[in-house]
Amino acid sequence: MSNNLITPDFRFRRLRRTSALRELVRETHLRMSDFILPIFIEEGINAPVAIKSMPDVYRYPESQLAEIVTRAWSKGIRAVLLFGVSTHKDEVGSDTWAQDGLLARMIRTAKNAQPDMLVISDNCFCEYTTHGHCGVTHKNDVDNDATLVNLQRQVVVAAQAGVDMIAPSGMMDGMISAIRQALDEAGFTHIPVMSYSTKFASAFYGPFRDAVDSTFKGTRNTYQMDFANAREALSESMQDEAEGADILMVKPGTAYLDILAHIRANSSRPLAVYHVSGEYAMIKAGAAAGVIDEKSIVLETMIAFKRAGADLIITYYAEKLADWIN
Ligand code: PBG
To answer: What does the record give as the reaction this protein catalyses (predicted)?
Structure first.
């Protein structure tokens, strides 16, 4: 015992001494190929509409989609996720499976603009129904199996329009089996499905709903998951894997890192995470208030997603990340 000096058993700080050493032992990295950019296209507008709580995010007119896709490509983005906001709404969302409906037109426009861009369609009904629910309603609730039939129609039309990947977000039971069967029967055995497999009923969707879904006053609690349930969260994703989902997903992200890690430990499929509108808005608001540093917080959040087990990240920050990473 030498005059009260304590000697640590091991010195972790040896590998933290210089930035070269820290980079050498860094376990998690970000690449542009990790990111998927969501794009919102709204019918009936002629100029981009700003989303108030989401600075730098817009709903674009259809006439600007080609330009947006080309700009994203030139920045290094290689995958986009298309959302349509329809003015041709009806009780069932039939525009989603119209041969010349908004969904089909968006896919064709995006693929024409940049044939090598991976074009993914968000496959749901909520932006195409008068009531705003994610499917056919019956007695104030969504009729699961009737919705599946329409979902089959929708994904076949999307595939015919040239989509590269289908991404069903409606949280209907059996949706992956139904989609796989419909795609295969129509000759699209090669088109992968990225399931919104574990999607929670979340207040983090608030800004998106304010901007896009303002007529919707209900809840999605009978189809989206209770955020209190971790075992069920795993079960939902494992069920989608069993039904043939090629990629699984957790949505939202930041508050659900435990769920990501849990699914990662139980599945070998690629895993995506959706960094949603509320997560984006909170960072923007915090940065605008001068209480956090935007770039550092975003990079830390993205690394956290990958560390927790995500392979892919869907984020409104994809274009900004291109500036920051390159
Ligand atoms: C609905 C849908 C949601 C989002 C996109 N499409 C969730 C919801 O309203 O339940 C949220 C996207 C976001 O918040 O970034 N299928």
So the answer is: 2 5-aminolevulinate = porphobilinogen + 2 H2O + H(+)
- 199 is an active site residue: yes
Domain membership of residue 1 (yes or no) is no
Amino acid sitting at position 53 = S
Q: Examine residue 82 and state whether it is found in any structural domain, yes or no.
A: yes
CATH code at 298?
Answer: 3.20.20.70
Q: Is residue 230 part of a domain?
A: yes
Q: Tens digit of pLDDT for each residue in 213-267?
A: 667 878 999 999 999 999 999 999 999 999 999 999 999 999 999 999 999 999 9
Q: In a 10 Å sphere around its CB, with 0-12 CB exposed, 13-18 middle and 19+ buried, how is residue 254 labelled?
A: middle
State pTM to two decimals.
Answer: 0.96
Q: Which of 89, 111, 251, 284 is catalytic?
A: 251
The best mutation among 51, 151, 169 to test binding of ligand 1, ranked by most ligand atoms within 8 Å of the C-beta, falls on 169
What range does the domain containing 205 cover? Answer: 30-325
10 Å Cβ neighbour count for 40?
23
Active site residue 111: no
* Domain annotation covers residue 139: yes
| Ligand 1 midpoint to CA 213 (Å) | 9
Count: domains in the chain: 1
Residues 6 or more apart in contact with residue 23 via CB below 8 angstroms: none
